[in-house]
Fold this sequence. Notes:
Layout: H1 2-6, E1 20-28, E2 32-37, E3 42-46, H2 47-53, E4 65-73, E5 79-82, H3 85-89
Parallel strand pairs: 3-5
Antiparallel strand pairs: 1-2, 1-4, 2-3, 4-5
Amino acid sequence: MKEDAENCDGDISKIKRGAKVMGFVVGETSYGYVVKSFGNIKGLLTFADIKTQKLATGPYKEGQILKTYCLFNKKNSGLALTLTKRSAKNPPAPVLSPSKATYPTLKLPKSSRLLTSL
């Protein structure tokens, strides 16, 4: 485990997507488990991620050591964590809010005619 901890020297900006993060469970929130790495960096492993990975062996306990991967670094304030490297390399597409979503324009062929009167 020492080789995993070497990359987490406390500088959160060095941790990139897909990086292995060894840590231990320090608490539980309504969203998931708070995991603290050996570099004293905290991350969140969500219940939703645990369900989709189908690797969970049951609820985790405080103090339990976990091997996780960085899903993304949240503005150098914490990490979003996942259980598999594959998920970290190919995260799900972000959900756009309706105000930022773009919709394709519908183009009709010139030969098509719309009924304008009945």
